[in-house]
Structure formats: C-alpha cells, structure tokens
Amino acid sequence: PFYATAARQTQGGIETPPQRYCVFMTFDMASTLTTDLQVLLARWSAAIAQLQAGKTIGTVEPSHGAGVGADTGEALDLGPASLTVTVGLGPGIFDERFGLAKHKPAHLAAIPALPSDNLDASLTGGDLSLQACADDPQVAYHAIRDLARMARGTATVKWTVLGFGRASAGANQSTPRNLMGFKDGTRNIKEPADFSKFVYLKDDAGWMAGGTYQVVRKIEINIEIWDADVISDQQRVFGRDKVAGAPLSGGTEFTTPNFHKAGDFNGRAIDPTAHIALAAHENNDGVKILRRSYNYTDGLNQYGQLDAGLFFAAYMNDPEHFTRIQTRLGASDRLNEYISHIGSGVFAVPPAPRSGSYVGEALF
Ligand code: HEM
Questions:
Q1: Which atom of ligand 1 lies nearest, measured to the CA of 257?
Q2: What's the predicted TM-score (pTM) here?
Q3: What are the structural domain ranges in the chain?
Q4: Is the Cα dihedral 222, 223, 228, 233 positive or negative?
Q5: Is the CB of 311 under 6 A from ligand 1?
Q6: Alpha-carbon torsion (215, 242, 255, 15), positive or negative
Q7: Residue 274 neighbours by CB under 8 Å, 6+ apart
Q8: Where are the extended beta strands (E) located within 177-286?
Q9: Is residue 343 within 8 Å of 124, Cβ to Cβ?
Q10: Is there an atom of ligand 1 within 6 Å of 238 CB?
Q11: Atom 37 of ligand 1 has which residue's CA nearest to it?
Q12: Contacts of 169-174 spanning 24+ positions with Cβ under 8 A
C-alpha cells in the first residue's frame, strides 16, 4: 500500500524489490502559490493510492457525452502490476517562492559539478520527481501520464526517462544485467540493517524521519564502442567476470572482492581503477548507497548509433555519499571511456503519508 503501516514508514519504490519497468519524470513548479503545491501533493497522493491498488483515478467514461474522462483508461484490466510511485521534492521547493525554507531537509542541495560531467541542462534538476515502477510498462506509463495530467497548470514537465530490464537487484532477487552485459547489483544494499544505516533518515531528521534522498543520473553508454572492446578489457573495466559476475580476485558471484590481491592489472587482480575498486565501500570510508537503476533506450542518436544507457537511481541518507563516490569514479574509472553522464537530479523523498494524509503534509 502507498500509505505508511506500523511496519513501514517509508514510501514504496525504494526497498521494494525492483520491478521490471520504470518511468521517471521531473517537473518544475509553474505556480508560486504554496497552496497550489499543497493541493498538487494531496491530489497526487490520493491518486497514487488508487493507482497502486490497481484502480482508476476517476471515471474513464463520463455519463454524458460532453464529459472528459478523469482517468485516461489505458491501464484498465491490467491490474496493479506491483506499481509503486515515489514522490520526491527538489531543492527548488525550499527556495524563496513557497516560504518553506525553514523545512528544508538538512542535506538537500544541488549536486555540485563533478569530474566527467557532460550534463544537458534540459535533463537536469526539477522541483518535483515521480518514479513509477511496475512489472507492466503500460501500468507505469499510465501512472506518470495521468499524474502529469493532474499537474497541468500547476507544474510543467521537465525531463523523463523510460527504463526497462531492472539493472539492480533487491534482496532475494537474481542479479539482472545492464546493457554492457554485466550483472548489476551483486553488491547492492540488501540487509535491513544496511537500509537503516545507509538509506533511511532517523528521528533527528524531524519531518523527514523515515524518508531518504534520491539521486538520479541519466548515463549514456557508447554501445558500439563497448561492443568492439575485447572481453579481457571489458572484465578489467568492471573488475568482474562477465558471465558469472565473480570478482577477478577469484571465487563466485557473491565472493567478497580482494582488492589487494596481486595480479596483472596495474599490479592487482582487480585493477585499482576498475569500476568496483573505486566504488566499493571498503575504499570509500565504509559508505554504501542503494542502487535502483534501469536500462533505457531513446532509439538512435543523430549519428545513427544506438542511443541507450543506464538510468542510474540511488537512495541514501546523505547525497554527499553519491558525490563522494562519483568524484572518484569521474576522475579515474576505466568505465569513463564508454559512458557519459548527461542528466542529473537530487530530491528529498519524504516518508510515506499516514492513511488519508499526503506526501509532505508536515510542510504546510
Ligand atoms: C558496482 C555497472 C555507474 C556505484 C557495479 C557493477 C556493475 C556496475 C556491473 C558490479 C556489480 C555490482 O556489485 O553491482 C555500472 C554501470 C554504470 C555504473 C554500467 C554506468 C553506466 C555507477 C555510478 C555509481 C556506481 C554512477 C555511483 C556514483 C557502484 C557501486 C558498486 C557498483 C557502489 C558496488 C561496488 C562494490 O561494492 O563492489 N556497477 N555502474 N555505479 N557501482 Fe556501478
């Protein structure tokens, strides 16, 4: 359910085992009236509760011909399909426009410029975010479409990504593969204790207790160049075996990598500039983030090459943890030759509302 329960204070779509599809959209507020923001969050919340239950958000077929449907109808008969919609608030919600600065979550601030950024302004930022994930792509799309429709006049759409083939693993899920053909999510956060320690905010976060921060990056992959790379180099880039997913220091998929083991890549079995060597918590002061990414494709680019990549979505109790890891990756990751960060956003994800209430109620 969308609303908080005794056992769960957090919104869905975070700890929820990743569904197969995702539609992500950001919005900028068009109105500067605080009540318009409040009404939008309340209407979205009520609608999301309906959608997650597999219901429409109003009539599809009005009783007389001059009526316009409240729900667009394309998800009728498809059921809930494990839908979750996660609502995020960008830094702009707490600027001078709405008088909410005193409620600003302690760690919410735009992600600073990072090495190897290639950001497109039209794919960056946003005052609000919606992440809809479901096992049926049409259910996820319908949710975003109808929620965007409700926002018309109050907020304008900014950027969106359609994700498929979850590229992250939750607890008890087999590890899927990203478009580079490697298993993604092997060493993701899976234990409840790690969710408490690294993802959710504690009581000292005030109204945000039970909430978290969402960092998203649209990362283009130069697929043709990657596909021409020899297998030994592909494995060196990640520090893992391609098919089995085992670390190059030996063992099987879930064997803990040994970053000190001697070998052929800059003196180590796992190259010190391999993606996992630079990203692992052992080499980042123990910091972990929850990754919940999806593959995406936008068809072909202007050169007739595949336009595809990773919609990277991550949750953490301080966005500085993303910044810290990405600062190291951006400077030296062997993966950089094949990828480009083109979109970015950071959002505070409030806790789930109490039944009958709405996301962000504490702000108003
Ligand atoms: C691990 C792929 C971007 C953080 C991995 C793994 C793969 C992978 C295949 C190894 C399996 C696993 O443990 O999940 C990619 C691709 C990316 C990308 C294809 C971009 C297109 C990022 C970014 C970050 C990140 C932007 C964060 C700033 C991590 C972390 C790990 C990891 C923390 C776990 C390392 C460990 O503990 O061993 N990634 N990744 N990745 N990645 Fe990425």
A1: 38
A2: 0.98
A3: 21-58+74-350
A4: positive
A5: no
A6: positive
A7: 236, 237, 238, 239, 248, 265, 334
A8: 212-221, 262-265, 268
A9: yes
A10: yes
A11: 280
A12: 169/18, 170/15, 170/16, 170/17, 170/18, 171/17, 172/17, 173/17, 173/18
pLDDT, one tens digit per residue, over 218-276 is 999 999 999 999 999 999 999 999 999 999 999 999 999 999 999 999 999 999 999 99
Residues 6+ apart with CB under 8 A from 11: 2, 84, 86, 87, 211, 349, 350, 351, 352, 359
Residue entry with tokens 């890549």: 265
Distance CA 60, CA 83 (A): 20
Ligand 1 touching residue 219 (CB < 6 A) = yes
Lookup: tokens for 94: 């707490």
Task: Determine if ligand 1 sits within 6 Å of the CB of residue 326.
Answer: yes
71 lines ligand 1 (CB under 6 A): no
What tens digit of pLDDT does each residue of 41-86 get? 999 999 999 999 999 999 999 999 999 999 999 999 999 999 999 9
